[in-house]
Design goal:
441 residues, alpha/beta, Rossmann fold, two-stranded antiparallel ribbon, globular
Amino acid sequence: MNLQNLAITAGVVPWVLYVLAAAALAWLVWGRRRHLSRWVPGAAMAAGLLCILVWLFSERVWNLWGSPLPKRVYAYAGVGILALLLIVPKILDLRRVPARIAVVPAALVVVLASGSLINQNFDYYPTLGSVFGDAGVKMESLEQFKSQEGRDPAPKAKRSDSPTTLANWTPPEGMPNQGTVVSAFIPASISHQASSAAFVYLPPAYLATPRANLPVLVLIHGVPGGTSDWIRNGRIGQFMDDYAASHKGLAPVVVMPDAGGKWASYPPLCMNTRQGQAGTYLSQDVPNWVKATFGAGTHSSSQWAVGGFSYGGTCAMQLAMNYPGVYPTFIDSSGENQPTIRQGHQVLLQQYFGGSAAEFQMQNALDVIKTRKYPDTAGIVTVGTDDQFYRPQGIQVYRGMKKAGINVQLQDAPGGHAWPAWRYGVENNMDWLMARLGVAG
């Protein structure tokens, strides 16, 4: 059994951990009268107070997350804190050395279970390997990819000038069963936007000889977050491999650029502002580099789509509305109704637009669509059924686009503001997406 692929948010593993943690916590709590009457109530009150303070400062004072976290997340953290606070009292309550030695491991089991419950809420690390950076697919640098015998990322002689479709594609002999993920820095030749390394998924049909002429899906991460999120946590490489396996090896080339400005204090918001030219970077630098480097999406803009979750969903919606000639197809998963930062809208106006609300409105999607037409645009907005904060905003985006005459769908995704809902946007709509990109349908 490959432990890297061991599921840790579903199946037997988390339940075994929770049973062990329940037993360990019960043992930490139980003891002599002084322990039960004094130390346990005191530790419980302290753990509760700490959780309330974390909630107060992280959400009401600093707005660290940008939106409220489910209250159960703080409760899960409180259980782990309680176990840690009981270590010293429990050691003092015990007389035998072997039992005292077991206190710390018991507390750590509870902490691990607490972390598992939080992780299960967001499905952030779905497998054991993902905790340590494993993406479930082959990964290599662009230099390593180029250095392999016979590998030229964009050889014109080896690919058709016509877009590849399910109807005209016959998988050649020797086509790999799986795709690969390449890491590279996408130069900001026009925008000069600061960015970190990007990732590109290349499906089996791209790795074949002759090579398929494939469309491109640009996927944008959340904030906080980074370019590896779609690969490691979203498992997009594994999903695309599975999809390609039943579609003659065909899937989009998936590009995951940095849209967060290297974890900048003021993320660039996929707009052109005083904080950077992210709009130009994502609408010009990224497509130009992909076409030149991989020879993908070269036929027309109909081969291009953009998607993302949370911050990335807002970005996808922004890019599709501001640059419809570049991204005529979009998937907005759990995005907002407009770009935001945790410091608030007034700080956003000041830091990004010199205090000008009019400048903001010139790029804000729901304002832009009031004065433009989108005859070739189509998109999907997905909202988590349990996402009380982002769901109303997604519905507002959908209604605004429908009113503007845009071809858009609204879909309910499972869960709250977490990976089950975020993955849904792409995974549930691949047939629609491939039809829009000209591969199927």
